[in-house]
Amino acid sequence: MKILLDNFIFDLQYAGGISKVWYNILLGTKKCSTCTVTIFESDNSKNLFRGELTMKGFDIIMERRAPLLLRKFKRVDNLGSDIYHSSYFRPLKAKSSTKVVVTVHDFIYEKYAGALARYIHLYFKNRALKQADAVICVSHHTREDFLKYYPKFPKNQVYVVHNGVDDLFRPLNVSNNSLLVEFGLDVNTFLLYVGNRGYAKNFDFIWKLLKSKNFIESNLKLVCVGGGSVTKAEQRRIEELELVDRIVFLKDITSFQLNILYNYAFLLLFPSIYEGFGIPVLEAMRAGCPIWSTNSSSVKELLGPDYPVSFSPHSWEEALTAFVRLSSKDLREKARQIGLVQSLNFSWEKCAKQTLEVYRKSLNDE
Fold first, then answer.
1. Which helix (H) or strand (E) holds 36?
2. Does residue 169 lie within any of the structural domains?
3. DSSP letter at 277?
4. Are residues 28 and 83 in the same domain?
5. How far apart are CA 265 and CA 185, in angstroms?
6. Which residues make beta-bridge pairs with 60?
7. Are residues 27 and 86 in the same domain?
8. Are both 54 and 157 inside the same structural domain?
């Protein structure tokens, strides 16, 4: 099986969830003894995951240098490949007999983006889907969304391949850590938030939590990881709530450091309205961190049917009740144990194997 993979996502992101997914797909194809893999990429990627990738075993085709925006519009030569899979929505110049696989991670642009951003995103997505012989969705919820937005696409050619989780995320046995001391934290004295703070993440619920009597009297801190610098509006809000000493914003955190934070956090806060997948939920479960989260979109399939507490992203009363319940040490331990077991259903090895299986099914579907 001759596979052509387009590494364009490594030029669009320094890190990010899609880059992590693509990195693990590349590792999986390297292990395929019956596959010949050709990589189409530029020579100026600064992506974190691309830097960790050993390219031995891949044939490399270098893309001509051009501005990033122009390269988004580029069509790729099929090079006589059996399978073409782009990490972004870049189609082939001439499809010929090549089978095209497209991955759809979410529908956040369709649901929440402004008119111009939505128009541009849909241009690239629809252009790629016109050539698609198979579509990979990263969750069952994303597949349901896909079939709503693209009802004419053959259902039997839309597959679910869940993302995985790095083995680095795991429970730690030590009771304290110098990283916590460095950040002025202690075990079980802080709530953790990971990711951007946009509308779909429902960060407004966290502001409400910070104003609640339950948080004020708890003496807990809030640690926010990623999501960019604190905005002026956020800073004003923090000052108005008199929480300057109880909120910590961290950036450039490594996965190793993040695992430590998951291990020692009181809870991960994840009140998301919409997720295509929700990698922080899976990382937290694998590290043994209990989660204050919603029962919306793909999050509920990550948590699984036995997770002891969740809430509607549209009901603050449910959310506050869930937080109060999770103040119980026994319930947090139950959530921790269920999360550890549930997280074992997901792995990058499984993700890569199922992706290769989609390739094979596409070739056999003549």
1. strand 36-41
2. no
3. S
4. yes
5. 10
6. 39
7. yes
8. yes
Q: Which two tokens stand for residue 65?
A: 């240098």
User: Do residues 358 and 251 share a domain?
Assistant: no
pLDDT of residue 153: 97
Contact 128/86 with Cβ under 8 angstroms? yes
The pLDDT, as a whole number, for residue 33 is 87
Model's pTM, two decimal places? 0.91
Q: Which of 256, 244, 308 is nearest to 287 (CA)?
A: 256
CATH code at 48? 3.40.50.2000
Note the pLDDT tens digit of each residue in 259-299.
999 999 999 999 999 999 999 999 999 999 999 999 999 99
pLDDT at 160 over 60: yes
Residues with Cβ within 8 Å of 150's Cβ and at least 6 positions away in sequence, in order, are 129
Q: Are residues 126 and 207 in the same domain?
A: no
User: Is the pLDDT assigned to residue 12 strictly greater than 50?
Assistant: yes
Alpha-carbon torsion (236, 240, 241, 243), positive or negative: positive
Note whether 148 and 108 are within 8 A (CB). Answer: no
Both structure tokens of 197:
């703070």
Domain containing residue 149: 2-164+347-364
pLDDT at residue 178 greater than cutoff 90:
no
Q: Tokens for 194? A: 């990971």
* Average pLDDT score over residue span 199-223: 94
pLDDT at residue 130 greater than cutoff 90: yes
Q: Which H/E stretch holds residue 85? A: strand 83-86
Residues 352, 265 within the same domain: no
> Is 172 within the bounds of a domain?
no
Residue 62, C-beta contacts closer than 8 angstroms, at least 6 positions apart: 41, 42, 43
pLDDT at 366: 46
What is the pLDDT at residue 175? 65
Write down the mean pLDDT value for the chain.
93
- The two tokens of residue 188 are 């079980």
Task: Name the domain count of the chain.
Answer: 2
Give the type of residue at 316.
W
Q: Are residues 12 and 158 in the same domain?
A: yes
Q: Are residues 193 and 336 in the same domain?
A: yes
